[in-house]
Amino acid sequence: MHPYAEKKASRIPGLPFLTELLDAKKMTTLKEYIHHSWEGETLDAMKAFIRIPSKSSAFDAEWEKHGFLLEAVKDAAQWGKKRFPSGTFEILSKPGVTPALFIDLPASNGHTGRPVFFYGHFDKQPETNGWSEGLGPWLPVVKNDRLYGRGSADDGYSFYTALTAILALEAAGTAHPRIVGFFETDEESGSKDLGAYLHEIAPLCGDPCVLAILDLGICDHHRLWLTSSLRGVVGFKLKVEVLTHPVHSGIASGIVPSSFAVMRELLDRLEDPRTGRVLLPEFHVSLPEEHKKAIERCAAILGKEVIKFPFAGDTEPRSSDPVQAILRNTWEPTLSILGADGLPSTSEASALLRASTSLSLSFRIPPRVDPQAALKAAVAAVTENVPSHARVTVWDCRAEGGFEAPALAAWLEEATHAASKSLWGNDFEYCFEGATIGTMKDFSSSFPNASFLNLGVLGAEENAHAPNESLPLDYVRKLTEAIADIVAAVPQKD
Q1: ω before 370 within 30° of 0 (cis)?
Q2: Of 213, 446, 233, 472, residue with least CA distance to 360
Q3: CA gyration radius, the chain
Q4: Do 152 and 93 have their domain in common?
């Protein structure tokens, strides 16, 4: 029996929450409330969430039939509604469209400030092999102050952290503005439905002052980290054909060009193989001066941790300098080969000259690069003046721009520094991510007057998408407090 099926009956915990935790005798401070919740109701909800195999649509072709995405949404809605009886928890569901949850919580204690908008997602990456003994993707386990299981850090905590923070404010009698939010179930598949959903709900959200995007990364556990930028992505599949069918290599080699050799020449037009530098000028921008000092501070904090990867043998990083390593990973373009066709395994290789070679190419591009111009340049580079006049085919093109967060509103910057300093003893810092979240532009266009508060828990130790994914409970408890403090600092309208 699937572990989910075994546990389903006990997934919804009891509800002593309102009667127990709102008792002033048992909750004397916001911190105490949050810690108690993360040891009880919030943690129980997270364990229940982990048990649901709510794989994203790209990894579950029958997601609609299985119903796990919808179930994760329904469980969250039920959990929230029981704790905010006057709030709206609207399940958005249409045939063929991944479900989502829209929330709307009224302001408390007469707060007149602009709303705060929260975002997260309930869909998950697939299981993967290699989980340690006693751990598993759908088995919630608390060990060494970490909650293990798929979706724990990416990204189930987002909903439950946001609501726990607001509950703590209400329990403490602290005023907060209106809270709105959207939690989807297709982020791991590209959020194809997000734009349409935001178009639908944006008019209902008022004019948010903050977009709290709770799906980003951290560089250490000693401060708040705000993601300042993400790279975009340009990609396509590339096929080189030299024959209509394979022929004996002993007969044809030396006369018929190798499709692999032609492919290699084309790749050398795109990237310097010695340095990894992308050669096309359309892929490059200058590092904005406002980010230079932030990257230097980040490098000073992290040091050699920036280049800490499981290198094989004596493999060396492209750069051992932390500043250069961060730059290469965030504000410089890179080319990765994600897949190949036409190449048999080494054990199955025979004396044939293959007819074709196909590769899946993916460029990460800096913010401010025009993705369409970059794509056009890359395609031209591999399709014009092809060596040996081999047949080249390009398909499945993708071009998404990067993201650069606007400057924080003055009050938000002050409140975020204060929260980080109070909880960790350090000011918050900006980090820069090499990954891509194409949907950030949808938030920008839907809420043009809002500041981005790009927060998260995802670092190297959290193993998102990998075996042993885990949520750092100490960090998320403090993150919950920080969110509560920042929300409480939203200015009242005059």
Answers
A1: no
A2: 233
A3: 25
A4: yes
Angstrom CA distances, 281 to 174, 271, 403, stand at 53, 11, 20
Q: In 44-164, where do the E strands start and end? A: 88-94, 97-105, 116-121, 141-143, 146-148
Sheet with strand 179-184: strands edge to edge: 88-94, 97-105, 179-184, 116-121, 210-217, 451-458
Pick the last residue of a domain from 400, 430, 452. Answer: 400
φ, ψ for residue 138, nearest 5 deg: -110, 20
Task: Kindly report the number of other CB atoms within 10 A of residue 203's CB atom.
Answer: 8
Point out which residues pair with 393 in neighbouring strands: 239
CB 490 within 8 A of CB 419: no
3-state SS class at 174: coil
Place of tokens 């209902």: 204
- Distance separating alpha carbons of residues 322 and 296, to the nearest angstrom: 8
Residue type, 342: G
Helix (H) or strand (E) holding 118: strand 116-121
Confidence of residue 8 (pLDDT cuts 50, 70, 90): very low
Amino acid symbol at 483: I
Calpha distance 195→288 (Å, rounded): 29
Residue 113 domain flag: yes
Q: In the predicted model, what is the mean pLDDT of residues 278-296?
A: 95
Q: Distance between CA 399 and CA 342 in Å, rounded? A: 25
How many domains, in total, are found in the chain? 2
Using alpha carbons, list the distances in angstroms from residue 75 to 60, 145, 462, 483: 20, 25, 24, 23
475 neighbors 95 (Cβ within 8 angstroms): no
Please give the Cα distance from 437 to 227 (Å, whole number). Answer: 12
Query: Which structural domain range is residue 260 located in?
Result: 248-293+317-400
Would 195 be classed as within a structural domain?
yes
Q: Are 215 and 186 in contact (CB under 8 A)?
A: no
Helix (H, G, I), strand (E, B) or coil at 33: helix
- Closest to 150 measured CA to CA, from 68, 50, 221: 50
Q: Mind listing the pLDDT tens digit for each residue in 371-415?
A: 999 999 999 999 999 999 999 999 999 999 999 999 999 999 999
How many Å apart are CA 34 and CA 156, to the nearest integer?
17
Of 370, 350, 361, 355, the closest CA to residue 396 belongs to 361
Residues 18 and 119 in one domain: yes
**Cα 230 from Cα 4, distance rounded (Å):** 35
pLDDT in tens, 421-447: 999 999 999 999 998 888 898 999 999
Greatest distance between any 2 Cα atoms in the chain? 88
Count Cβ atoms below 10 Å from residue 54 Cβ, excluding itself: 29
CATH of the domain at 454: 3.40.630.10
pTM, two decimals, is: 0.88
Count, residues in the chain = 494
Strands 470-472 and 146-148: antiparallel
Q: How far apart are CA 368 and CA 408, in angstroms?
A: 19
Look at residues 376, 400, 424 and tell me which one is the last residue of a structural domain. 400
